[in-house]
Design goal:
Number of strands: 10
Number of helices: 13
Shape: globular
Strand order of the largest sheet: 1-2-3-4-5-6-7-10
Structural class: alpha/beta
Largest sheet: 8 strands, parallel, barrel
Distance between the termini: 42 Å
Helix content: 40-55%
Radius of gyration: 18 Å
Order of helices and strands: HEHHEHEHHEHEHHEHHEEEHEH
Strand content: 15-25%
């Protein structure tokens, strides 16, 4: 069923104003984007209406991921973004696709206007010591091939990379040690870092120049995900860190955003737009 675009757009604007202190004096973040996985239920049904709603809220960047975007008409999506003033600096592409359908993946990323491909997830079979160590050289090779094609490469974390510690060494530490920092950058999901029991501030300072982007989602008191501003995370403190100085993109994401989704991403956008950094 195709969603009513007027209904979607109404949902994006018919929300109470979010008043935050210091908004007039805030030093604004340069690039606030949305990971479209957050609104995947809407996007899968009507991608054009969803992009229109996202742009109406105020987002000017999106990151493709989920919602069946990889099987859609990418030229049509690009035309829609151009019309709405949206850009897609990066796209999430699965490991198997990068290994088995590399040329098609590159073509898709370029059609959507991306300059970076992000590997979003490694499935269970890769989460043991042997399989992980076998995959890391492929990260380097994929990144090198993408560079040849004119694209960057980044890896997006969840919590398992930190909590899986074969031989006492986390998968994330192995990733940092065995991938080329000149080729393999990091899209740091701040929620999953904290959820794994790792100090996000310490990790940001450690990663420094390897940081490409943040996935920004808040943490409720019970540990679950929340819209930015509806939890306990001090994002201003994290974004002021020296290690965060080179971060280029701030993508709102809430894997568990409640329907009808648009109020949740509106809260996140307004919070970040008002943030003093």
């Amino acid at each position: 069923m195709i969603l009513d675009r007027r209904h979607l757009l109404a949902g994006a604007v018919a929300l109470p104003a979010l008043t935050l202190p210091g908004i007039a004096a805030a030093a604004r973040l340069g690039a606030i984007g949305l990971q479209l996985y957050t609104v995947r239920e809407l996007f899968q049904k009507d991608p054009v209406a969803t992009l229109e709603a996202v742009a109406r809220i105020g987002y000017r960047e999106v990151e493709y991921g989920g919602g069946g975007y990889d099987a859609m008409d990418h030229a049509m999506l690009r035309r829609t973004m151009d019309r709405l003033g949206l850009k897609a600096p990066s796209v999430h592409i699965a490991y198997d696709a990068l290994l088995g359908r590399f040329d098609a993946s590159v073509a898709m990323a370029k059609t959507l206007g991306a300059d970076t491909v992000v590997l979003p997830y490694m499935t269970d079979e890769h989460r043991n010591e042997a399989a992980w160590q076998a995959a890391l050289p492929n990260f380097n090779r994929i990144a090198a091939d993408l560079k040849t094609a004119g694209l960057g490469f980044a890896y997006h974390n969840h919590d398992f990379e930190f909590t899986n510690r074969p031989g006492g060494v986390s998968l994330y530490d192995r990733f940092l040690k065995d991938t080329d920092p000149a080729l393999v950058t990091v899209e740091l999901d701040l929620y999953w870092v904290a959820h794994a029991g790792v100090d996000p501030a310490a990790l940001i300072e450690r990663l420094g120049r390897r940081l490409y982007a943040f996935h920004v989602k808040d943490t409720r008191a019970d540990g679950d995900m929340a819209a930015v501003g509806a939890g306990k995370t001090d994002f201003a403190r994290l974004f002021r860190l020296k290690g965060a100085a080179g971060v280029r993109h701030f993508y709102v994401e809430n894997d568990r955003a409640p329907a009808p989704y648009l109020p949740d991403i509106t809260t996140s956008f307004r919070t970040l737009r008002a943030l003093r950094v």
